[in-house]
Amino acid sequence: MKKPSLNTFVLATTAVLVVVACGSSTPSGLLGGGGPVIPPPNPPPVSGPSRCGEHPWCDVRLSPDERTALLLAELTQAEKISLLGGDNLSGVAGAEGTHTGTGNGIPRVDLPTIYYSDGPMGVRSGMGTALPAPMGLAATWDVALARRYGAMIGDEARNKGNDVVFAPTVDLMRVPMAGRSFEGYGEDPYLSSRMGVAWITGAQSEGVVANAKHYAPNSQEGIGAQPPPELPGVPLGGGVVGGRVSVDARVDDRTLHEIYLAPFEAAVKEAKVGSIMCAYNRLNGQYACENRYLLTDVLRGEWGFKGYVLADYAAAKNPVDSLNNGLDFDPWPGVVLNSNVVTAAVTAGLVSAATLDERVGNMLRTWFAYGVLDRPAYVYDNAQIDQEGHARFAGEVEESALTLLQNDGVLPLDVTKLKTVAIIGVDADKFQKRGGSAGITPFFFNTPREKLTERLTAAGVEVRYDDGSMSSAAVTAATGADVALVFVSDYSIEGSDRPCLSLNCLGDVRDQDALIEAIAAANPNTVVVLETGAPVLTPWRGAVRAILEAWIPGVDAGNAITRVLFGDVDPGGRLPATFPNSEADLPTAGDPMRYPGVGERAEYSEGVLIGYRWFDAMEKTPAFAFGHGLSYTTFDYRNLRVTKSGDTATVRFEVRNSGSRRGREVAQLYLSLPAPSADVPQPPKVLKAFEKLTLAPGESREVTLTLDARAFSYWDVASKSWRITPGCYPVMVGRSSRDLRLTDATTLCR
Ligand code: BGC
């Protein structure tokens, strides 16, 4: 077990220009309607005296709206304005005992300070449990696990004294080079929605308010100077061309609704997420944090969101437009919505009193609805955290995330047949941390080298380790070993995209492709373990016997990878993102207008053809397809039955473990949607349902998947509504988007 060195990330200083400009009209008020709008966490995780006090608005028999109206009536204008901006500059550095963000309350009325923390794969203040990165969670395709994942982070956030957690990241992976790809759930809106909803439900069940981010679409960081791997976390905001803080994503309304907004819609409607973080970038000309279409028309108008919107750090630009168009809170540095600026805007009549009430009311109502004010303050104390239990959970997630991309039978390893094993690559002996706000400093961790060595030496197997820095020494270590395990990683970071998709990108001083090729030439039994946050190119795959994608594996990496390599458990992962053969196959390839953008405009002109949708539509063969992942056993699919009922359908089929080992399978259902017209193209297939199964040898399971009306719908831009086109909807079921076992092309016709 290893202890880490504390390694906080460095923030690039951001100059914030405060401009008071003419605002647009005030959105209509949303307060005052109906009963409870957001369910409180169930069951409340902490009981104890309410910190609300003895005020009329503390009566829990009243609805959150009623309580909000009472408190608003009590507050002065200056007090209301004081709630709009954050109050802590340095917490973002992530030091122990601090919070990523703070919003001071109002002692006169017993309104407490509200504390905020990152983030999507662990809590980022001092030390915490680093879970496998969200891309790995998505690779589990396990909704129940995603719920527990969110709950574990909710638990740590609460035990570090936080009320709100800045997560999950539900931005879709449009380009695999995007620096924050590891932080999201891959390229499919349905899979991302399922993961996001489960994460939020889990976190909010622990009594913290979740925060779906970054709304939207924050799908690139920009191309710029790549920090060296020795300096993880530096610099944030380094993306220069197409940089996240300025790029204008030009996205048509159908693509927005069907692809990029879908996980946010699910977070709002299904998971009742309490807050949303607006992104740095612009959408169709207007900054996300003052984008009326995003923040008011869609979020509140179409989806009925009743929580509050807060800005990404320094993403708020114009106070008047932000307030009038839907931003409720500017957590850091809190100067765009600072008291002097907002007071001036209100005094000048640029922001109305009703708008001010609406902005503050959105926060108060959420805190009332989630019980934030009706319990004692949470206490920051790492000793309250079940650190060992959380580390074991990280291992459980990782076992289920490990994705076996290729295997000619060399895996699982049989220790009784081994005399010497070579472990090559510094990544075998390292905690994998990625830079930025999702970079977690673990309480403790183990490494693959440590756990493999324990296991092998206990069985009398000789272990040779070489860090791979000098290829000749690594070749010597690998030569003559029964198996060579080569560990490699990518370098991904918030603030700048990878300049290319290979393992040898600029900024990575190691030529890892050459290392793999050299080892494969020296040892015929070479197995590559990838520790990458997103797809990479695998030009050497024909020369190696197996490839195991471990993602960014979290604190129990050593145990989980060892257990899967030895077959104690089946590799449970399936790809949440396509691994291309070459960069030229990507939807954005060869078109700088699409990516990284020209003149700070990025045209999403590939439309809905993101990820496998593009590969299918263009008939391109990926290296490893979306949904792909091998097992140590085999599965049969049979007896597909599709039943239609109005606009919904039920799909039943059987999955049988036809091999001799216990195994995990992800049964995937894809639908082919007819195109309503030539200008509304549909990809050949779209993921609509899935189920993760664990089956004993010979065991069969009947899988029942339901398709609701939305599964058959497209977003009709003209009517601004979901529509179903007449035609047939072939159903395809199988092991991946390119390994379909059963088809029914005729039942679902309308
Ligand atoms: C990131 C957010 C994060 C915030 C606070 C920003 O740079 O984009 O995701 O929550 O920092 O750390």
Unreliable segments of 5+ consecutive residues: 4-37, 230-235
Rg computed from alpha carbons, rounded to a whole number of angstroms: 26 Å
Largest sheet: spatial strand order:
1-2-4-5-9-12
The structure class reads alpha/beta
Mean pLDDT: 92
Strand content: 15-25%
Please report the number of helical segments.
17
Overall shape? globular
Bound molecules: beta-D-glucopyranose
> How many strands appear in the DSSP assignment?
29
Biggest sheet character? 6 strands, mixed
- Distance between termini? 59 Å
What proportion of the residues is helical, as a percent range? 10-25%
Overview of the molecule:
By secondary structure, the protein is α/β, with parallel strands linked by helices. The protein is built from 17 helices and 29 strands. The strands form eight sheets. Strands 1-2-4-5-9-12 form a six-stranded mixed β-sheet. The protein has a six-stranded mixed β-sheet with strand order 13-19-18-17-14-16, sandwiched between helices. Strands 11-10-8-20 form a four-stranded mixed β-sheet, with no helix packed on it. Helix 15 links the parallel strand 17 and strand 18. The longest helix is centred in the N-terminal third of the chain and has 17 residues, at 143-159. The termini are far apart. Residues 4-37 and 230-235 have low confidence and may be disordered. The protein binds beta-D-glucopyranose. Beta-D-glucopyranose (BGC) is lined by residues 92, 100, 118-119, 166, 213, 236, 312-313, 437.
